[in-house]
Amino acid sequence: ITEFPGxxxxxxxxxCHVHYPQLDIIASxxxxxxxxxxxxxxxxxxxxxxxxxAREVAAVFVNELLANGTTTALVFGxxxxxxxxxxxxxxxxxxxxxxxxxxxxxCNCPEELQDDADSAYSESKALIERWHxxxxxGYAITPRFALTSSEQQLAAAGRLAREYPDVWIxxxxxxxxxxxxxxxxxxxxxxxxxxxxxxxALLRERSVxxxxxxxxxxxxxxxxxxxxxxxxxxxxxxxxxxxLFDLSAMRAADIRCGLGTDVGGGTSxxxxxxxxxxxxxxxxxxxxxxxxxALYLATLGAAEALSLDAYIGNVLPGKEADFVVLDPxxxxxxxxxxxxxxxxxxxxxxxxxxxxxxxxxxxxxRGKSQRPV
Length: 373
Description:
Blueprint: E1 8-11, E2 13-19, H1 33-46, H2 51-67, E3 70-76, H3 81-93, E4 97-101, E5 103-104, H4 117-131, E6 137-143, H5 151-163, E7 168-173, H6 177-186, H7 193-199, E8 207-211, H8 217-226, E9 229-232, H9 234-239, H10 247-252, E10 256-259, H11 271-283, H12 291-298, H13 300-305, E11 323-326, H14 332-339, H15 344-354, E12 360-365, E13 368-369
Parallel strand pairs: 2-3, 3-4, 4-6, 5-6, 6-7, 7-8, 8-9, 9-10
Antiparallel strand pairs: 1-11, 11-12, 12-13
């Protein structure tokens, strides 16, 4: 029997949206979304033309996830197929449950990061056949966002989605107002940004949309009826000045939601830090986020958003044994605050607000303790 006196054991954290190729541009100063992509994200992703570099970053990224107590993630690669190979290889070496895909982009982005409709289809298909369902891995068809895909490429992605109904679809939706306005100009026949995806058969069960900030009630009703889920990315939304996620409206519409770090626009791979920022985002909208609800959004709620709650998200008998040991005494201030807590909810809320990776005492994947490699 292994005991952890004075510590908290919680289910492994689940990150519903993150970009592993952007790890090295986290905390990049001064831009909103579209300018930030061109100034920072695209140059960083161009480096992934080097397969060796992709493998190096993937290994570091997986270690950082585990150091922060994250045992499952839905991950963006780059346009290069070997970027997906690299993150799958790194996750498989740790027996992690992870979903990823190569990015699809054929317009409105640097030429060196473009594929086309045919190569997007054929390369994604080959990756699905190679990785989807292998161990604990799953594949996500990954158009970056509708702005960087032609109608032909979105149609090719929809064709893949019909051919492989058990894979995921992972993209961005309504993150930034300028982006939304450009989408309206690029797709004038569509009612909304979400309608673009729906019209190409990319809105269904296992579709996960990051951000979802600038939506109306009709969009939310449509997303709920088709089974789409949302990734709430508070640190990124605040850092890039994109807007505030309306969790109460999403819950009222019965849309499944989980937390996402969205590194590198997001500012931390820690789901505890992310939950703390979610509390502040909701506080600005006169809504509360109790500690137990925050924990749910980072664990079982995220598992439900990813359609993985049959396997992970809590520690019921029969689930895969992904869990995290948290140490409230890992810093002087958190130890002092924890000692003053009257309930476990108060203790966890204080830990959520004050913690970082020092407070993750151990991370277990399928019952095995993980150490950096």
